[in-house]
Design brief:
- The chain is about 30% helix and about 20% strand.
- The chain is built from four helices and six strands.
- The protein is globular, with a radius of gyration of 15 Å.
- With about 150 residues, the chain is α/β, with parallel strands linked by helices.
- Helix 1 links the parallel strand 1 and strand 2.
- It has one domain: Rossmann fold.
């Protein structure tokens, strides 16, 4: 079992509201799941400044290279989420890492669709939800919210 737990409570961009419990939730999510596992899981926790877009994608890529077909991958995220166009029901949904920029979500945030595609292409028994329903805690009210 592989667990990547991400918790972003403090953002580099001052325009994104801080989430006081997200760092704890991200780290705690990984520990709670690993404590219930019958086998020793590989757990990686990224919080606040360490939880950049590049770091999350690099960790997922590293897991992809190690995971076997019989393994399970759990991706847990606690932080802000944002839709690129709140007025468009078909807008893209993003998870906001530490270095996200409100005006450039496509290049600075984690697209739920791209994460879902990556998980589907990863060997193993990942929880493959075609819509990548966010697990863990995602707080609306990021940069584009009133």
């Amino acid at each position: 079992m592989y667990i990547l737990a991400v918790g972003v409570g403090q953002y580099k961009n001052a325009g994104i509201r801080a989430l006081p419990n997200a760092k704890r939730d991200g780290g705690g999510g990984g520990r709670r799941v690993s404590a219930r596992s019958t086998r020793k899981p590989v757990v990686k926790v990224l919080t606040d400044a360490a939880a950049t877009r590049a770091a999350v994608l690099n960790e997922l890529d590293a897991i992809k290279k190690q995971i076997r077909r019989q393994d399970m991958l759990i991706f847990y995220f606690a932080g802000h989420g944002e839709v690129d166009d709140p007025n468009d029901l078909k807008g893209r949904y993003y998870l906001l890492p530490h270095d996200a920029t409100p005006k450039g979500l496509a290049g600075s945030a984690l697209s739920a669709a791209d994460l879902g595609d990556m998980l589907v292409r990863t060997p193993g028994k990942a929880d493959r939800d075609p819509g990548l329903v966010p697990r863990g805690r995602v707080q609306p009210g990021g940069p584009g919210s009133p």
